């Protein structure tokens, strides 16, 4: 198989969009390095992915801790394998007005969504530059394009991810390396449960949520095509387009109303 000697490393690979992305890479013959916090879940998913006839290495890391991101890179290097594709999928949010939310939890989310992503990107990108080959997919969000009352820190981290990704892409224009941002909207994953967001008006209609498999396919296709970014879903494209035409204060108020708790 064309990709039989290639490796894709995917963080957040045991659930949601990360899991669906891992399935796509496995089906295309990529060997996998899958990363998440729970070793038992990793081992279970590894057995599933191996049914595609590929090698799967599972590494348990808590990427809320910066040192764990550095040690992940070191561990992969010690294995003597080359990462051809890096997928920075792991991320979390926290729901509530900023005056009420827990600062330690928010700082941990910043470390997960930003610091560990930057560490892994820097580490593996330098290897890609040395051989002039590689691909990186960063999970941004349509949240990156709008201020997000009730999720202020999460929206801020995703704005960073999008800006960071687009900046590095320009720096890499003379290399055979591409970096792509995937921008989903509300997707049917465990994200909202982990963020304590189940009471938000934004997540009451399960039928309106995107299928994580469809989001992953959009991101995978954009990555393989070398695109700079992709907004997954027509409705989300329209929402971002409309937001671009409105003052930020209006967008912030709209998001406040969309994301506030449902009325009892």
TrEMBL record:
Lineage, broadest ranks: Bacteria, Pseudomonadati, Bacteroidota, Sphingobacteriia, Sphingobacteriales
Source organism: Pedobacter metabolipauper
Name of the featured protein: Short-subunit dehydrogenase
Family under the similarity heading: Belongs to the short-chain dehydrogenases/reductases (SDR) family.
SUPFAM superfamilies associated with the record: NAD(P)-binding Rossmann-fold domains
MF (Gene Ontology): oxidoreductase activity
Keyword Oxidoreductase attributed: yes
Keywords assigned: Oxidoreductase
InterPro entries named among the record's database cross-references: NAD(P)-bd_dom_sf (IPR036291), SDR_fam (IPR002347)
Cellular component terms per the entry's GO annotation: membrane
Xref: Pfam families: adh_short (PF00106)
CDD domains, alphabetized: SDR_c
